[in-house]
Amino acid sequence: MTEQSIHTPNPDVYPLESSRLTGDATAQDIESIRKRTSVFVYEWPVRLWHWVNALCITVLIATGWLIADPLPTMTFAEATHQFVMGYVRFAHFAAAQILTIGFFGRIYWAIVGNHHARQLFYVPILNKRWWREVVFEIKWYLFLEREPKKYVGHNPLAQIAMFFFMTLGITFMIITGWALYAEGAQAGSLSHNVMGWLIGWVGNTQFLHSVHHLGMWFIVIFMIVHIYAAIREDILSRQSMVSTMISGTRTFKDDRPD
Q1: What whole-number distance in Å separates Cα of residue 61 and Cα of residue 223?
Q2: pLDDT tens per residue, range 211-231
Q3: Can you say whether residue 72 is alpha, beta or left, with left for phi > 0 and alpha for psi between -120 and 50 degrees?
Q4: Is 115 contained in some domain?
C-alpha cells in the first residue's frame, strides 16, 4: 500500500468534500442517483380517491361485519341509554355515500385525466403482448423469475385485479348496498326510486344481504393481497410502489430501458 493511498480516502466509501447538498454522499451514491429515473404517473385526484376509498372500505368492512353479526351483549349502559348499532349503521351508510360519490368522481377523472387514470377501467384482452406479460408477472409473484420488469402504471396482473375487484367489485357493492338501503328508506324515497327495482327483480332481500356480505369477503381478500404485493414490490422490484400513490411519481431503481 502506497503512502498516497493511505492519506487519500476512497470516494466510493467516504463522503465527498463537495457534497454538502447531498449530505454524506459518496461517489457510489452519486452514481446511483444518476441512474435513478422517475416519471409522473398519478394525478392528485387519483391519489386522493385511492386513500379516501381505502378509508371508506375499511369503515364499511368493520361496520358491515357488526351489522351482519352484532355484538352479543351491551353491558356498558342501559339499552335505553345507548345507540351503538344506530351509530354503526350511520357510519356504514355515511362511508357508503362517500364511496359512491368518490367512485363517480373517479369515473369522471378517467375521462378527463391522463391515460394512466383510465387503466383501472379496462383490460386489453386482445393484446397478445399484454397476455405474455400477465404470464411473466404470475411467474414473478411465484418466485419463478429472477428479476421483475418495470412498469409506469399498473403491471398487467395488478390491472386485472384492480378491474375485477375494484371497478366491478365496487360497482357490485354499490348497487346491492343501495338496494338494501332502499328497503329501509321505503317507497317514495330517492334511493328506492333509483334502486328499488333490484329488490323487485331479485324478489328476496335476504339473498341481497347474502351476496352483499359475500362481496365484502372478496374485497377483504383483495385488500390483503394488494397490501402484500405493494410492499413486496417496493422491496423487491425495480420501481417504487407505495410512495408513488403518495407523490404520484414512479421512481425506477436502474436506468435500463426494460
Answers
A1: 11
A2: 999 999 999 999 999 999 999
A3: alpha
A4: yes
pLDDT in tens, 80-103: 677 888 899 999 999 999 999 999
250 by Cβ neighbours in 10 Å (0-12 / 13-18 / 19+) ranks as buried
Look up residue 16 and give its DSSP letter. P
Q: Does 163 fall in a domain?
A: yes
Q: Please return the burial class of 126, using the count of CB atoms within 10 Å of its CB with bins 0-12, 13-18 and 19+.
A: exposed
Question: Are 117 and 152 within 8 A, CB to CB?
Answer: no
**Average confidence (pLDDT) over 153-180:** 93
Cβ-contact 179, 200 below 8 angstroms:
no
Q: What is the 3-state secondary structure (H, E, C) of 110-170?
A: HHHCCHHHHHHHCCCCCCHHHHHHHHHHHHHHCCCCCCCCCCCCCCHHHHHHHHHHHHHHH
The three cell numbers of residue 113 are 385525466
Domain total of the chain? 1
Let me know if residue 150 belongs to a domain: yes
Residue 21 has a pLDDT of: 47
CATH code of 182's domain: 1.20.950.20
Structural domain boundaries enclosing 96: 37-244
What phi and psi, each to the nearest 5 degrees, are found at residue 16? -80, 145
- Which residues, 6 or more positions from 60, have their beta carbon under 8 angstroms from its beta carbon? 92, 95, 96, 99, 173, 216
- Residue 233 domain-assigned? yes
Give the model's pLDDT for residue 189.
81
What gap in Å lies between CA 144 and CA 164, rounded to an integer? 25
